[in-house]
């Protein structure tokens, strides 16, 4: 019994010594003051430039593609002829029908003159007029059919794709061209499902493209697809961009969606925080302080409360340091060092 009591006393003394040593051993730690300045929180995504509206241009009659008058990337105006199908047969038919209509008109006028002289009856003149009108209608109908063989731009726009070659048989309503018109371009971007709760319609977007290094273009979130891709674990976000940009359909674009912004915030590097706490140095001793985070950007993590601007905060949270442990410290200017962001 006496031996057990001695061992217990020894253990208590050993633990007390360990605690005393832990509280009094001096580690040398790097500390910083929280910085003050602007912070921007953004969600990164990649996407593709595409037209908001794509209009298919197709013939209303089957035929062989005879001529292509425009190509991909070309600007066109409303009413401009873009291509035509083989029309030699229908042109010949129009020529014959026009000749018949001309003869019918002459016959009508001749019989009208005879009517005035009393040489023919009104019924004969009416019959001649009817035959002339039928001939004219045949010409107009065939000319309309000729129009079915013409592919015409419905609006001002840009030809973004061509799907036909000369000599190819084109069916009714088979698109030969795709036009971008009537609306600005947009970027269709994929946003990770972990970030999508931060993204809202109307948020500003900064866009970059490898084709134009060093240049930034503005846009805004137009819509968010409500159903995500379970395989890619992402959601599609449509970003509308301004008309006057050199971005072209099909280009890859990098998008930074601005989800939060503060002009003046108290900031710490992410490495200073662990599970909502920071380690502060107060009178040469470690103190664990609970903090409330705001938005996070490349500038740092916004601290809403818990520390003051002049506080001494460990640049890197060290879980091995104990509350109340004495430390030596060196003050760094973290705004000029690598934040680890």
UniProtKB/TrEMBL annotation:
Residues 94-145 form a coiled coil. Gene3D superfamilies: 2.40.30.170, 2.40.50.100, Helix hairpin bin. It comes from the Bacteria. GO terms for molecular function: efflux transmembrane transporter activity. InterPro entries: Beta-barrel_RND_2, BSH_CzcB-like, RND_pump_MFP. GO terms for cellular component: efflux pump complex. Residues 187-258 form the CusB-like beta-barrel domain. Residues 55-178 form the CzcB-like barrel-sandwich hybrid domain. Keywords: Coiled coil. Signal peptide: none annotated. Belongs to the membrane fusion protein (MFP) (TC 8.A.1) family. PANTHER family: MULTIDRUG RESISTANCE PROTEIN MDTA (PTHR30469), SLR1207 PROTEIN (PTHR30469:SF33). This is Efflux RND transporter periplasmic adaptor subunit. It comes from Micavibrio aeruginosavorus.
